[in-house]
Structure formats: structure tokens, C-alpha cells
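Justification of resources, computational component.

The compute hours requested in this renewal are based largely on the per-chain cost of generating structure records like the one below. Each record pairs the submitted sequence with a full C-alpha cell output. That output is archived, and it is also reused by downstream analysis tasks.
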Amino acid sequence: MYQEGITIADFKDDQNVSVGYHDDDIVIIDNVKGLVESRSARVTMNVLVVAISGKAIGNVKGETIELNANQVFVSSPNATFNDFMMSPDFEFKAMFFTNRILQSFLREKMGVWNEMIYVHRIRVFTMGELDVVFFSHFYDMLRMCIYSDQNNPYKTDVIQSLLRSAFLALCGRMSQILPENNQLQLKQPDNIFQRFIDLLNHSKTKHRTVESYADELCISSKYLSAICKKNSGKTANQWITEHVLEDIRYYLQSSDLSIKQISSLVGFPNTSFFGRYVKEHLGKTPLQIRNNRR
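The structure output for this chain reads:
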């Protein structure tokens, strides 16, 4: 069944999900059984999963992902999750969070996150022994804060301060993983790049011109392309194409919308143009992709 996307509100209201903490930007959970058992789900937030024990395997954005003990999985918003299976002893901690809170936590370190997630697309990495100890103690402290005095007027501030520390530590680990000879050293003022990625992630109709996105960012298309090239090695048009294709795969494989409806939703003027675009970029017609879905 087609879902527009799972949000923070969905997690809070789901009877199958055990929520440890939530606010307008963050959900921390211990169990995502309801999500895992669904055939396909798109999560509108960033995702962070720390595996404690056991093993999980599934499909994220068309890529097979395997997660073992002491490994971390990260994903950008609007990722599509399919066919996840977990071993009986699989234990994990998961967090779902908005781009707004992520930028608030990381600030000038956002470049590391962008390079990891968007440029090199590293989704799974292994924690060292000290990392495991650190995050174990961090989580214990976080739980103490969550279940402490409910009337503390600064409780949310304390929890978010702890989370910011954990994210900064995580970014430090990421910076060690990134290829040394290929680091792009993303910095402010290239928050324009992050704003462009945010715009792509949250635009329902993604198949638009570079000029259209640049206008929304109040910059020229030439400057937007230069920023994208500098920060990622890819042009703005390449980023647009990648996001459009991701939407197309999701709607064709996971929704009951007609091909005509999908064509219009993604931003194509007619189904003929849509069909040629899909065939050119994905090597199959829209109907072939739909018929091959599980």
C-alpha cells in the first residue's frame, strides 16, 4: 500500500513502536517491528541505527545493506526501506531526526555529514572498542535524563545537549572513515549546498530545471551548479536526476498509483516523455519496472 512517508508523528502514534523519547525533531526508539515487517516504507527523516548484537539485512534505496553488531547505519531523509530481516538476537538503538535539528547539532561540522552521506554514500561503518564503550555510557546517561524528573523545565535542553555531544563524536568518527585523499573539506558558507539537498529531499515534484531550484534559493543557476560541483564533485542537474530516479523507483515499486499519475506527480509533462526518461536512465520501461516489483 502506498505511503507518502513515515514521519515523527507516525512513530509516536504507532502501537508497535516503543518510543523512549520524542520531541518535534527527534524520536529515539528500541523497536521498529511495525516498520521492518512492512514490505516497503519511506522514512521522511534522517535515520541512525546502532546495532548492539545479532544481524539485520535489507534493501535501502535499491542497495542491499547488512548490519552486524557494533556497526552503525545512517541514512538521509526519504530513504525507501524494503524487505528487512533480523536475526532473533538482533538488538539495536535507533534514532530518527530532522535536518533542522541535525544542522543545529553539527553547525560548521555539517560538511562531514554531507560528505559521508551524500558524496561517498557510506551507509554502514564499524565502531571501534572505545566507540562502543562511549556510546554505551552515553545511552545509559541519556536514559537517566529521559526518565528523570518529568517536571524539570530544562529536560529537553539537557537531552538535546547530550545528543549534540553524541553527534559531534559520531562526526569525528566519520571524519576518520572518509578517504583521506579525496576529502572535499566542505565548509560554510556552503550551507547553500545543504539547503539545495534539503529542497530536493522535500520537494514533491523533483523533475524541475536547475533554474527553478536556484530561484527558490535566491541565487543564479550558474552559482548553484558551481556550489554543487565544489561540494560534491557533481553538478546540480546530476543531483536532481538522482533524486528524480529515486522517486520514480519508489512510486513504481511501492505504490498503486497509475503510471500516468506517477508521471504527473514526479513532474513530467506527459507519459511518453516519462517513459523515454525512465528507459534512458534505468534501462527498463516503467511497466517493466512495475511488473518486476516484489
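The CA atoms of residues 19 and 29 lie 4 Å apart. The radius of gyration is 20 Å.
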